[in-house]
Every structure is written in structure tokens, then in C-alpha cells.
UniProtKB/TrEMBL annotation:
Name of the featured protein: Serine hydrolase
Lineage summary: Eukaryota, Metazoa, Ecdysozoa, Arthropoda, Hexapoda
Keyword Transferase among record annotations: no
Superkingdom, taxonomy of origin: Eukaryota
Keywords, comma-separated and alphabetical: Hydrolase
GO MF annotation: an example: hydrolase activity
Entry GO terms, CC: membrane
Family statement: Belongs to the AB hydrolase superfamily.
Keyword Hydrolase: yes
InterPro entries documented for this protein: AB_hydrolase_fold, AB_hydrolase_sf
Amino acid sequence: MLYHMANYLLVIKSLSKTFEWPNTSLMGHSLGAVTSYIYSMLYPSEVDYLICLDAAKPMVSKKQPTSIMRQHSKNSSNIINFLTSGEPPSYTIEEIAKLVSTAHKHSILPENAKYIYERNIAPSEVNPGKFYFTRDPRLKTGSFSTYCQRDLVELAQLITMPIFIAKAKDSVYYEDKENFYEVMDVVKRSSSDFDFNYVSGSHHVHLNHPENVFPGLINNFLRKNSVKDRSKGGIIEDIIVNNEKRIEST
């Protein structure tokens, strides 16, 4: 089975139901931001605010449907080969850092790559001292979903909650930029607090230079809009307990 946007949306909905959250606050980067944006369109009354980092609306692909299908077919075949083969290729930590940085077109600084790969690698049993990637290869296929710009413009009026958007100055738009700003013009009118900011940095600015995004911009947004009761579900207490245990163990 391949992943679909519906899988991501169901995860958020399941968490909200499991913890019995009366409201959900969402923050995401890239695909996470797009997922949060779509969820907010589906359940606008359940989302009290939304934070999107260098993405928001779903992209409208420039590729023809036949080209998209051929790419999915190729990716699917590669995944089957990967899943039925032995241990994946292994690398030194230094090589992994460079691979992660290069794969993201150097949007991630090599010294910060560890925050990405440390949860996605495992020691090699074939080559001691080296590591291989454990990430799910199905994530590389993308989604078969396509979006119509006309529909996205109309649906943008459902983004009524406060929304914070950070657009990295050194990042691309991944689609015609006119599509992005056409939707933003609607969101600007529909949102109760439209907070749009250009920030200096790459697509991974939050990873390389969090000081450009968090201390002033996002914190100011949160002070205004994070006003709902968050005691429901016990998650705050769990975080506090875990932090105390972590401090005691150091």
C-alpha cells in the first residue's frame, strides 16, 4: 500500500478524537504545512489556529497526468525492488550528513542534517561502523491526488481561523507563484488573523536559523491566538513529567 494525503489527515483526526481535544492547533513545515492546511479546510470549526512554514496550499502540478502516472509507476517498481532486497546501502555518518544536505539541494546545512537523519538510520549488520536509512521508501512516491486551482481558490474561504505563514526568501514556490498568491488573497480576507511573513533563509530556515522565525514572529502570533483551554487530554501533564524525568537523569 502507498501513502495518500487521506492517511495523514486521518492521523490528525484520530489523535484529536483519542485525546478528546475540543480544538486542535496545527503547525507544519512543507508537506506538514500542506496537510495542516487541508485539514483546516475540512474541519475549520475544530482548528483554533494554523502555522505554516514555507508552504500552505496544495500545489497545482504543471505535469501532464500521463507524466505523473509514469513517474508513479517507476517509483512503485523501485519500491518493490527495495522492499524485497537485503539491507540497504550503508554509509559513514559524514557521508550521511552530506547525502541529506545534497538530497535537499543544500537547503539543510550539513551540520544540521543530524536532526533529520538521527531518527532515520540504523547500524549496518553488513558493514560495521556504517549506517543505513530506515525511512519508509513509500514516502518517496508522493500522492496520486491532483488539485485544481479554481477549487483551491474557492475552498480558501474555509480558512477562517488565525493563520501564520512564513515564506522563506531563498526557497522556490514549487508551482506557479501566481497560484500561491491568488489563494493567499482569499485567505487574507477569510482568516480572522492573517499573519504573513517573509523570512531570510532556505526551505529549512526553521532548522538552520530558527531565530529568524520563532522568537519574535511565531511567539507574537501565539500570544495573540493561543488562548483556548489545553488541559483536556492530559498531554500537557505528560510533557511536564517527561521533562522532569529528563532533567533528573542528567
